Amino acid sequence: MYKLLLLEDDISLIDGLQYALKKNGFQLDVVRTIREAKVLLSVPNDYDLLLLDVTLPDGTGFEICEQVRRKGNPIPIIYLTAADEETSVIRGLDIGGDDYITKPFRLGELCSRIRALLRRSGRKKEIGDSLLVSGKVSVDLLQSKVFLSGSPLELTSAEYRLLCLLVRNSGRILTRSSILDLLWDGNGSFVDDNTLSVYVRRLREKLENDPSHPEHLLTVRGFGYQWKE
């Protein structure tokens, strides 16, 4: 599991981030002042990414970025900025920050940016080693269990394999023939096209708010299916 450090003094935002990041498979530590962050980061730690508010009561998140970069630590850093701080954040990027997101932001967008930055940084502690997470859906690969908004979801073995395949390839269009080949380790002769349609329909009924108008398990006409986070 990726371990993140959040430097933020807004209690309401902290609460929202703790809930959203935990739900998306991240472990989160929180500090509320520059002093606390400096003390915590002055000793060896195993953080994979830093989320730094720019303006705090005792300084700016830029100070923490400078401290980390002086030590040669390449850890990914995302700034959390107010709208009127977007110009000053250029300085933050120049001193070694990797990305920034402007408040108020959607928690889903932040999680997507975190995952993208972790991939680009080459960090190999993949969440997918034991946990697949996409929005409200999480898959415990060790126990072969699926959760929707934290509640267990009952799936058949075929539905489970199909969901894992789709989530692992989130954003990619998978043809029907490739799905059959990948799921059943052959040429798909054990399961016909109509059966795959049944599995897709059942998954939508269990995962989508409105199965008739899916938001996540999409049909791409003439090609196949796509999972959209």
UniProtKB/TrEMBL annotation:
Pfam families (alphabetical): Response_reg (PF00072), Trans_reg_C (PF00486)
Alphabetically ordered keywords of this record: DNA-binding, Phosphoprotein, Transcription, Transcription regulation
Entry-annotated residues carrying 4-aspartylphosphate: D53
Gene Ontology CC, one term: cytosol
Name listed for the protein in its UniProt record: Stage 0 sporulation protein A homolog
SMART domains to which the protein is assigned, alphabetical: REC, Trans_reg_C
GO biological process: regulation of DNA-templated transcription
Domain OmpR/PhoB-type, residue spans: 129-229
Taxonomic path: Bacteria, Bacillati, Bacillota, Clostridia, Eubacteriales
Translocase in keyword set: no
Known DNA-binding region: 129-229
Organism: Lactonifactor longoviformis DSM 17459
Record's function text: May play the central regulatory role in sporulation. It may be an element of the effector pathway responsible for the activation of sporulation genes in response to nutritional stress. Spo0A may act in concert with spo0H (a sigma factor) to control the expression of some genes that are critical to the sporulation process.
Response regulatory domain span: 3-118
One Gene Ontology MF term: phosphorelay response regulator activity
